[in-house]
Amino acid sequence: MPEIVDPEVFDFEISQFSVDELDFITEEPCESFKHVERCAEQTEVLKELKEIEEECSTENWGGMNELPVTTETITQARELLIRSANLPYLIQFPNLTPTSFGLLEMEWYKEKGQRLAIRINEQGVFIFSGLFGQAIDAAGKMFEENIHGTSLLEGDQFPKVIKEQLARLYNIPPI
Amino acid sequence: MPLDPSEIVTHFIFGKRKIKRKVNYIGVSEISIQPSAFEPEPNRNDLSVFQISDIKPQSDIRSIWFIGKFVERVRQDAHLKKHGTDGTNPTNMYGRGDLSVQQIQELGLHVEPNSSPPRHANITEFPPFNREKNSASFNTQQKLADRAEGFLSSEVSPEITDILNEDVAVRHEFSSLL
Questions:
Q1: pTM score > 0.90 for this model?
Q2: What is the number of alpha carbons within 13 Å of residue B159 lying toward its C-beta?
């Protein structure tokens, strides 16, 4: 059943963004309030990425001999963020941070002890690290569930390893 | 000699995106610290912290922030000396993350005191790190960020812009360096 959208709320939300911004974030029309919210979140995170590009594209951007975050790295990150719009609404967009090695860090923060982060470079190679809370092993001892590794952005799909770990993080069926 | 596990240290965080107050997925407001806030210094593979065991339990918050502003000034002076006025500026201090030495040691890291400046120490023994590989170091940084108790400098009242001119308890330790 389609969701009922209050036109006043819809207009209020939409009016915060220019037509150009909305065209930029998605080619699909915003059909529901949730989708509009998702568009707004995506606009915000892409603006943040643009700011990082402007502030961190040269060496020593933080005054401590940092490597530049290149246009190619920003492009890789933008592609990934655009693809994230299709993830379940429960999964918010990640926090973005430039690193001193010129990588772009993205972290999906659920709550303390439960988070998944990646760092991506200009070739689309990324390292990932996730914390998934406490669990109990066969001997009855508590341990911290976590994972880390390296992978590569390929094709136009959202990376499978990240989808799997996001589903694990948010305790939802495979995405 | 490594610090005792009961000691408390703080890492000052520079960069507005590395520490933020945000609403988590169940609607609770939290201060979250990004893993990149705990990136070790690339050449030495260590991370700078300050010992606050004696001042944190006494709630001498302004002394802790005094140290942070001191570090901010040292970074700015060093940058000016090295780069002059080339248009770049070191990022300001936006917050701090407090950890017990025990929490750090549980990750296989050490905390080595360092005499200068006062109260300084380094977290050492990070896994080897290069740009694209060795996600083990990334994992360690994420765990440090997760375990740390975060504080935002913007939430301190009264605000701390001029705190280096205040007569806080630790001032005498830094007076010859100011």
A1: no
A2: 4
Kindly state whether residue A104 falls inside one of the protein's structural domains. Answer: yes
| Tally: H helices and E strands in chain B | 4, 8
Give a yes or no: residue A5 inside a domain: no
Cα–Cα distance for residue pair B115/B138, rounded to 1 Å: 28
* ipTM of this predicted structure: 0.91
B133 pLDDT above the threshold of 80: no
A interface with B, Cβ–Cβ < 8 A, is 48, 52, 58, 60-65, 90, 92, 95-103, 105, 107, 109-113, 115, 117, 119, 121, 125, 127-131, 144, 146, 148-150, 170
A63 and B88 in contact by Cβ < 8 A? Answer: yes
- The arithmetic mean of pLDDT across residues A29-50, rounded, is 86
Q: Do B132 and A170 touch (CB under 8 A)?
A: no
**Do A25 and A39 form a contact (C-beta atoms < 8 A)?**
yes
pLDDT bracket for residue B152 (50, 70, 90): very high
Domain that holds residue A24: 14-170
* Residue A175 located in a structural domain: no
* CB within 8 Å of A61: residues ≥ 6 apart: A55, A68, A69, A98, B88
Lookup: tokens for B11 = 């890492």
Contact B36 A98 (CB under 8 A): yes
- Asked whether residue A8 is domain-assigned, the answer is no
Contact between residue A73 and residue A90 where contact means Cβ atoms under 8 Å apart: no
Smallest CA–CA separation between B67 and chain A, in Å?
Answer: 19
pLDDT at A18: 52
Domain count, chain A: 1
Mean pLDDT, all residues of chain A:
85
When pLDDT is averaged across residues A98-112 and rounded to a whole number, the result is 95
